[in-house]
Amino acid sequence: MQHVQQHSQNIVEVKNSCTGIPHDRSRQQQQERLAVVHSSPSDKVYGTGMGALAEKIIAKDSEISLKPTTTTFIQAASLPVVSLTAYQALTQGEAKTGSRVLIVGASGGCGLIGIQMARYMVGPNGKVGGICGTHNLDFVRNMGVCDMVMDYKTPEVLIGNDSPLKTFGEFDLLYDTVSSPKPTDNLNGQSYDIALSKFFTPRTKTVAIHGVSARWLWMLLGWEARNFHLMICSTKRTGVQLQSIASMVDTGAVKPVIDSVYPFAPEGLESAYARLLSRRARGKVVIDIFRGQEV
Ligand SMILES: NC(=O)c1ccc[n+]([C@@H]2O[C@H](COP(=O)([O-])OP(=O)(O)OC[C@H]3O[C@@H](n4cnc5c(N)ncnc54)[C@H](OP(=O)(O)O)[C@@H]3O)[C@@H](O)[C@H]2O)c1
């Protein structure tokens, strides 16, 4: 593995071995997230940096951390954005021991890490519920962290009078990774916080990471509703969060989930983005910059 130049007190040049790609392709040359990098021949680190679809990238040392010791680089590359997003969403939503947390999009990149991290945060006395499509119900159940897994493809059951959500009980936090301006990302034409609101208590919080357009407009105008938060994952000074996540991974509480790995080549990138944007990926899509040869 190649060194690394120290550009200034806190900027390092690092060798990039793999990258988990984000939805926003326009950012790939700019502030890209999710690189797994080496900061010295002995340090194996992961985190976020500039231009992660490159063999060498620039990173702030406050935004990287030693990678989990129990993962491969490919697995570690799948972690930074989805796990930082889950960590920040669950923290903002005040998930704690004993909380009941419901996660929409439980089979997706953010959701699969979200359900595991929620279980870690709420402990055995809390509850974790997941919502996903019919074809992923068993997959999510088999992660072994949810008390209940529900199908959004039968909305009449999900929000009907005999909804399983009634037995789940009043929940404290809805972590919504799905609702967006696209009608196909909603339930019966409604964002999930509206569609599920009949199961809310006055204290139930929603943290959404995409959200419908009106919500963004309201937020920009300073009208964010009480108990509803739109969240943009911050990559600033996240080294400490990445350290906590690495320890959750090393204790086995959180396992990286990879949908697919593509080679670092034009057709590989095209296929990787097509897979990601299909919204059918089960876990993360990763680009292997060094084609299987961990450096
Ligand atoms: N705010 C932030 O900081 C931040 C950070 C990261 C990501 N994001 C955004 O968050 C979103 C989620 O990212 P991701 O990587 O987790 O996406 P993803 O992997 O594509 O997630 C797909 C998930 O959405 C579910 N889904 C699709 N249509 C649905 C519907 N109508 N109702 C309920 N669930 C539905 C899928 O379920 P099935 O496949 O089981 O049907 C699957 O669980 C993306 O829009 C991304 O841009 C935001």
TrEMBL record:
Superkingdom as given in the UniProt entry: Eukaryota
Pfam families per record: ADH_zinc_N_2
SMART domains tied to this protein: PKS_ER
Limits of the Enoyl reductase (ER) domain: 1-287
Residues passing through the membrane, by range: none
UniProt cross-references to CDD domains, sorted A to Z: MDR1
Protein name: Enoyl reductase (ER) domain-containing protein
Native species: Sphagnum jensenii
